[in-house]
Amino acid sequence: MATVKSRIFDTLAAPSVSASSIESLRASLQADGRWPDVDYSSTVITNWPPTTHLTRMRDLARAHAKPGSPLEGDAGLLADVLKSYDAWIAEDPTSTNWYHNQINTPQKLGETMILLEPELSSARKSAGLAIVARSYVPRSTNSGTNTGANRVDRAYASLMRGLLDNTTSLVSESFLAMGDTILVTTAEGIQPDQSFQQHGAQLYVQGYGQVYLSGIMKYVGWASGTTFEFDDLQRRVLTDFLLDGVQWFIRGNTTDFTAAGRGLTREGQSQTAAGFLGALAQAQAVAGGYRGAEIAAFEQRLSADVAAGSASPATALDGFRHFWRSDSSVHHRPGFSVFLKTSSTRTLQPETGNGEGLKNLHLGDGVTLIQAHGNEYDDIMPVWNWRMLPGTTAEQGSYPLKPASDWGVAGTSTHAGGAGNGTSGVTSFRYSRLGVTALKSWFFLGDRMVALGSGIEAPAATSPVFTTVNQCLLVGDVTVSAAEGESHVFDGSPPGNLRWAHHDGIGYVFPTGANVTLEAGNRTGTWQSINSSQSPALVDKDVFSLAIDHGNAVTGGTYAYIVGPVADAAAMEGNPLGDVVVERNDPVAQAASDPAAGITAATFWTTGEAAGIHAEAACCVVFRQIGGHIDVSVSDPTQANTGELTLTLPQAAAGLLHADTGISVQSLSPSVVIKVDLAGSSGRTLRAVFYQRPHAYQKLEIGASADAFAYDGGPNTSYGTGDTLTAKLLATPNYTRLPFLRFEMPETTVPPVSASLKMSVITTQTPGIHALHPVPSGSWSEMDLTWNNRPTPDGPPAGLWLPKVGARVSVDVTSQLSAAASGPVEFAIQPLTRTNDGLTQYASRENSDETLRPVLEIMVPRSEVEIWRIGIFGENPDPGTAGDFEDPDEDGLCNLIEFVLGSRPDDPTSASAPDVRMENGNLVLSYRRSHASADLDVFASISDDLQTWTRAEHGVDGVLINTTTAPTDPTMDLVSVSIPQGGPRFVRLAVTEP
């Protein structure tokens, strides 16, 4: 306990002390220990004035206790600190907000007591501890004020009380209560998709999430090396949340405003990402080497962006993620980011409460925050038109903008979700509120966001219905181009049927034109209008606002616009965003494609077809065809489908590279048809990858060379010989089991293009989501693995799945295999979410049924000659016929030469034999060479006696070699070798494999 107390003291004493500020505080302190400018009688909910006393008192205590402080140990300062301490105890002010009474006051008072402990009399300590004790809630209680960040905050105050009172049991209970929150859960806290929720199913990465992470990282560090230390799994949970959750919600120094709940309406909440730097400073020590390079990159990027005040394209994240637990999508590119928030009946919209978030009604209705620099919306909130939040479709009426009730209102949509392949994605949202309905989809294709709307119905609307494209701070000129006119700087005149607009490095294209309303000028408002505790002072900002006007009493309304980074207005005439195609936009489906990149994304609202993709139920789909591969990602945005979805793709395939758990292939030709088991998928993206060239890859199946599980109930016992591998995760000790597997990779001349771990589920009881982690090679043995010596994962999760009895689990582990790897690769199965049981058993390598055993399935590229050979002779050809030097058609050309020449070895009439002739006194060899033979060494050899042969080299001894592309066949070259005739000459064509 002494170590923990010392670490807390060092943390509290670390901030610098300004002697002049301290003297100013002392000068204004009254004889009764109070400050005259503090209203101690106030009971307000937010910005509670007595907090000022606590903060000042802690500052005085720090100045007295801090080693090296100019006022360290100063007797007069100590007298003033104790005077203010006694005054607080005597006054004991309270707020009508429980937070101040049970968290804020106990924490700040406890911190002062830690700093002052040697100077506190027994009576003073007892009086202070009685107030600090108000934070305490028994660990067994998981009430609404004792979950997530609130639980950690209460536990911190209780931890200080235990240290001050020398109560080991309370210190232990406090750390255990903190540990209760370091888990992946579907209750409040860190979600399986790495978003964070508080106050119910409400996205709260900023605010509660930041408070939680910043606090818990410190506390884990304080406990390190003591009997209260947190375990490796908890450290990994925090690291994964930081890297796979938090950093994706940041652009520059701004955290996604839609992830801030009511905190968005507090002044100074714009530049908030810097608040995560404290957690990042602790992260390397907490992670213990796990994902260390990624932590360092995040810290370096955020520090640089905070210092610069904007995002650097050179270090920006690149990719798309849909956070299916929280109805949120994020798309990052070097040039811009988009943060998109929807809501459903499964989630709560950004809340109002304590007089905050007074206009948050539409904040979960498809808001799209478009940011290149990260500061496009800094403190715009007082002057925002909250009926025109970017991305929303709403009537511009006079209805109240305060949500119907405080602390989060469930959304109304049963269709809100998204799918992505890591780089591209789609999000869809069936919107319905206050008499306005719309089918809305957003497609993220590289440097473009395509927004489509259809089925817009508002028959009773007496005010115009707008779809707002953007509403951000005005920076510089706005340039526009009407459908029939030249571009010009916007001068306030109605823009008419707009073709495109450009503002602050972002281009907006309307592929079919749009009747828009555009504003670019000054607006005024107050923070108090959106948050009753904030200032009533008038704020003015210059605002850019662009919206599509659907008119009144709308029926069958639609819209389409494309957004992306464009350097300047002059570039807009080059149509930089217009190379995408709107494939369909109606109440059956919405789809957009980027033909150059081979990407198509679609939302299906019902059974239908779009861009050649046919879906038999509502879903989100991202389809990509590139480099001879087909890549399809699919999700269930309703999260209600309990059966299988049949999906037909617009192309045929030759074979399957990988399919996630739940995807089965029905056919490959004439079109790829898959069935997707969506039951229990919870909106997660499921993905399959196919190849189109026949015989391009060889499948190798590798059985496990070792497998076992570790059990905390038998910490020194090995479980490596059973016919099942058991996985289980409970908060209660002596129930957790973690399986481990090893596979010996064969030596290959080329790296695998795909690798899938296949396992069979034998038994499962109310399972949670499982994940797969890589572990260090050679870190365990099957017969000696125990809980106490189990290896620690050294990489992020390689896939998520929900175990189902009888189902074959398939996890993509391609990225976990190094290029052309040979030797062992090893994995740990990690249950992510706890349930009331969760026991799951997978078949082990010892299982009597060979078909159930774990297998590593890798796909290795075949050489061009092998692909050619199989295409002619079949998958398992007779070496006596198909060997390199065999001549099955007896045309005098062996198989390898036939491959080079592009002819068939089973048809003598197809041969195009090399030609030898005399030309201008030179011996000339001419032959055709297939581009497919580029990996072979093909050359002409010269001899004068048929005994000694010399390779013909261009420019050597007068040899000239000329290569041109065959005019009628771009896959073939024509090669001519001209050899000076100096006597008897013989020439032959030679082929060797490197």
Structure summary:
The chain has 994 residues and is of the alpha+beta class.
Description:
The protein is α+β, with helices and mostly antiparallel strands. 19% of the residues lie in helices and 32% in strands. The protein contains 15 helices and 50 strands. Strands 9, 10, 11, 12, 13, 14, 15, 16, 17, 18, 19 and 20 form a twelve-stranded antiparallel β-sheet that branches. The chain has a seven-stranded antiparallel β-sheet with strand order 21-22-23-26-27-32-29, with no helix packed on it. Strands 33, 35, 37, 40, 42 and 43 form a six-stranded antiparallel β-sheet that branches. Strand 10 and strand 11 (425-433) form a beta hairpin. It is globular and about 120 Å long. The model has no long low-confidence stretch (mean pLDDT 95).
